[in-house]
Amino acid sequence: MLLPEGVFIDGRSGAVPNANERYVKPVTELRGLYRDAAAFDAYVAQNPAAVGYEVAGFRREGADIFFGTTTMYPGKIGDEYFMTRGHYHVRRDCGEAYYTQSGNGVLLLQTREGETREVEMAPGICAFIPPDWAHRSVNTGAEPLVFAWFCQTTAGHDYADILTHGMRRLAVDRDGKLAIVPNPGF
Ligand SMILES: [Fe+2]
Asked: Which of 72, 131, 136, 165 could join 53 in a cystine, given CB atoms 3.0 to 4.6 angstroms apart?
């Protein structure tokens, strides 16, 4: 039988001491995500051990939901801020919630039909991600961006579409300020 429990989440660091799923995504594994390939090569040559983001998840066998944190480190490659790969859920009836706890960023969302939206990521804002909206988070600040996510265990990640085509809109630095611009390569 599943039993209730309280799970500590450190909203500053994103640490979840009782997490039972974790992964670290090195920047070197994000080749192709950024439009400026030369800037990417220069970045990883100078920062071969850089981490883009890490994920900690708390999951109980047989439960319908799970949750955890994503901690995104600050950085830029070319004019693009550090970002996650972005994904649809395999199950098209599963949405998600992203509750930002520290840092600043933007959540880029799009549908398969071509709708796009952006939701600010700032402490206290919980982003509602409806079913079948692809989502990518972007750290636009100088500090780690930490958010807690809550999702159905069977939602599944479909990364292929975004890795292949990119997203319709980009979050870029224009003279030190965030700009959301159409992706010329989409
Ligand atoms: Fe998701």
From this structure: 72
